[in-house]
């Protein structure tokens, strides 16, 4: 039960960081934190009390946790890494072009 | 930029790189039996290469040709799609190696089981290693050329 | 501009809070049935199918790997495409000279 609260705290923290920070790198960090909250929420939804890992090697009976959210979170983690790489390379180019990382400084166009 | 840490750090990083690579290969090849798989093992191997990159300085990334990484990623992707399209008689992603007992068809729990799944683990692991490594190299090499 | 930003922020946080309430009061997997999902829900039927038939359907002892590479292989194919596209985009942005 605490896991749900932690996951939502992480998501809200990430969204608040994305909205209230002005530095682009900090916005990307907040995006990553919100990602972690989503992974934690999905894994927690798939939990069954007393469950073991859904692996038949060395399985000794008892309930297993739901394997489907784990597979989807595995996909989501890799896509999160891809988004991170793409965002960081965009930010690097933004800094190279404008000389600043402040969002409010980026409004004006520059040749 | 040429030498960021002392020789001790470089030697220790080289030493531990062996264990990281063995662990990553174990995770990839046993992905259908134990926790792990292509993505996780690929990320472990990429973390080993990142350790090498941090210990030897960013100019180390220039020694590895980009074409090698690009070819590895292409081979991984093509092998994944070919393995998936083996079962076109039934459907895409039909595991024909397992259902028709062609190869990797021992009983569940043995190493040579799972049909196309270990081979798909290998190809996806190759793809993830090459992709994340080339991303790291591009990020670390950026800006070092013109200044 | 700051008021618009504040309104956006507060509404986004409210949406997250609403989702939290929606999820936590679901009888199938909610906050108060954590770890004890109802036996009748659709999620349990899928779960039992994967647990009981996953190894026979695709041959791996690790059911998560079975789902990722066989039963839901299209997800993995799309993910590989996303990985390739993201790396290609990053390399195109970060190549020598950068985006002019």
What is the CA-CA span between the terminal residues of chain C? 30 Å
Total helices of chain A: the number is 3
Biggest pleated sheet of chain C:
none
Helix content of chain A: 55-70%
The CATH architecture of chain A comes to Orthogonal Bundle
Biggest sheet character of chain A: none
Going by helix content, strand content and strand pairing, the class of chain A is mainly alpha
**Outline of chain A:** elongated
- Biggest chain contact: A-C, 44 and 46 residues
Structure write-up:
The complex is a heterotrimer of chains A (111), B (147) and C (100). Chain A is mainly alpha-helical and 111 residues long. Chain A has a single domain (2-106), classed as Helix Hairpins, CATH 1.10.287. Chain A contains three helices and no strands. Chain A starts with a helix and ends in a 13-residue tail after the last helix. Chain B has one domain (7-141). Chain B is built from five helices and no strands. Chain B has helices at 7-29, 38-56, 66-84, 96-99, 117-141. Chain C is built from four helices and no strands. By secondary structure, chain C is mainly alpha-helical. In chain C, 30% of the residues are buried. The model of chain C has no long low-confidence stretch (mean pLDDT 81). Chains in contact: A-B, A-C, B-C. The interface between A and C is large, with 44 and 46 residues.
List the topology elements.
The complex is a heterotrimer of chains A (111), B (147) and C (100).
Chain A: H1 2-20, H2 24-45, H3 67-98
Chain B: H1 7-29, H2 38-56, H3 66-84, H4 96-99, H5 117-141
Helix pairs in contact in B: 1-2, 2-5, 3-5
Chain C: H1 2-24, H2 42-58, H3 63-71, H4 73-94
What's the short version?
The complex is a heterotrimer of chains A (111), B (147) and C (100). By secondary structure, chain A is mainly alpha-helical. Helices cover 66% and strands 0% of the residues of chain A.
């Amino acid at each position: 039960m605490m896991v749900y609260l932690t996951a939502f705290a992480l998501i809200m923290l990430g969204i608040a960081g994305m909205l209230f920070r002005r530095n682009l790198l900090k916005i990307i960090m907040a995006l990553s934190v919100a990602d972690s909250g989503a992974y934690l929420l999905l894994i927690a939804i798939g939990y069954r009390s007393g469950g073991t890992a859904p692996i038949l090697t060395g399985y000794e009976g008892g309930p297993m946790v739901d394997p489907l959210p784990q597979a989807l979170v595995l996909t989501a983690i890799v896509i999160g890494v891809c988004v991170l790489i793409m965002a960081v390379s965009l930010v690097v180019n933004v800094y190279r072009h404008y000389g600043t990382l402040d969002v409010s400084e980026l409004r004006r166009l520059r040749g | 930029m040429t030498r960021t840490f002392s020789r001790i750090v470089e030697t220790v990083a080289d030493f531990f790189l062996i264990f990281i690579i063995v662990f990553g290969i174990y995770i990839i090849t046993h992905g259908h039996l134990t926790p792990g798989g292509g993505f996780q093992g690929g990320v472990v191997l990429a973390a080993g290469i990142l350790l090498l990159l941090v210990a030897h300085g960013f100019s180390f990334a220039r020694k590895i040709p980009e074409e090698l990484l690009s070819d590895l990623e292409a081979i991984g992707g093509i092998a994944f799609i070919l393995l998936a399209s083996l079962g076109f008689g039934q459907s895409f992603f039909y595991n024909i190696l397992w259902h028709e007992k062609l190869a990797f068809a021992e009983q569940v729990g043995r190493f040579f089981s799972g049909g196309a799944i270990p081979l798909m683990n290998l190809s996806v692991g190759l793809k993830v290693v090459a992709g994340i490594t080339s991303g790291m190299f591009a990020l670390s090499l950026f800006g070092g050329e013109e200044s | 501009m700051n008021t618009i930003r504040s309104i956006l922020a507060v509404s986004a946080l409210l949406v997250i809070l609403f989702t939290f309430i929606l999820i936590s009061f679901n009888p199938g997997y909610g906050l108060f049935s954590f770890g004890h999902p109802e036996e009748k829900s659709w999620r349990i039927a899928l779960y039992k199918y994967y647990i009981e038939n996953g190894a026979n359907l695709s041959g791996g002892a690790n059911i998560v790997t079975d789902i990722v590479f066989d039963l839901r292989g299209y997800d993995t194919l799309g993910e590989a495409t996303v990985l390739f596209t993201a790396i290609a985009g990053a390399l195109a942005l970060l190549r020598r000279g950068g985006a002019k």
